[in-house]
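Listing S7. Sequence submitted for prediction.
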Amino acid sequence: MVKTWNIAIPELTGREKRRAYLYLPTMYRDQPRRRFPVLYMFDGHNVFFDSHATHGKSWGLSEYLDFFDVPLIVAAVECNHHPDNGRLSEYSPYDFCDPEFGCVTGRGDITMEWLVNTFKPSIDRRWRTIPWREQTFIAGSSMGGLMSLYAVTKYNEIFSRAAALSPHIWADRKKLTDLIRTAPLSPDTVVYMDWGSEEFGGNRRMAHDLRLVADAIFDRGIHLTARVVPGGEHSEASWEKQTPFFIDTLMYGLDG
């Protein structure tokens, strides 16, 4: 079951409304005393419904979770669609310049402060969540993948596990890597990270940079699953196919 409603993020776009999404697991109604871990996701409009997705193809995540009876709540929020790089700005912790998009002011820290201090508490109040760090996860793709790596590192006291699919680390790979190397991280932290072999034409430099980030995570001694997806592309259709891998990583070792 996926519920939707409209919310505003005053810190970012004032009173302008955007959709929020909440997936409830198959057993939520029949087990009224049970509480569930929560996965927070970026680009909520691309997660569940093709009709809402930017390019007409979603991850179809609810169908997968329903079919396998995964005991997990998923909370997601639509991105900023403003043509002046609204999504890039909200989903980057760092200022950066790009040949295609120009210079972007990173407001990812504002996005995370809202998610941690406003959105998460509202989800915990309204639904039967397990609010503790050990059962609070975060995931996203591309810029959302960058934000997921940033979140599990900078806000490690909130999120214990993250999935970063095709993370767009080039906003500022050095700052991200420095954060990973120096932030206080609990040894039980779990990270899933992947990228497709065909992304951006199989650019070897990009693959090299992603390996540097994976090495930095691995060097911290936390639990890392890193994959190169054979034939993987930078698209929702490709990321949907990775659902079994990242969901299994996020849920590994938890009571079913």
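Caption to Listing S7: primary sequence and predicted structure tokens for the chain studied. Residues 2-251 form a domain with the Rossmann fold fold (CATH 3.40.50.1820). DSSP finds nine helices and ten strands in the chain.
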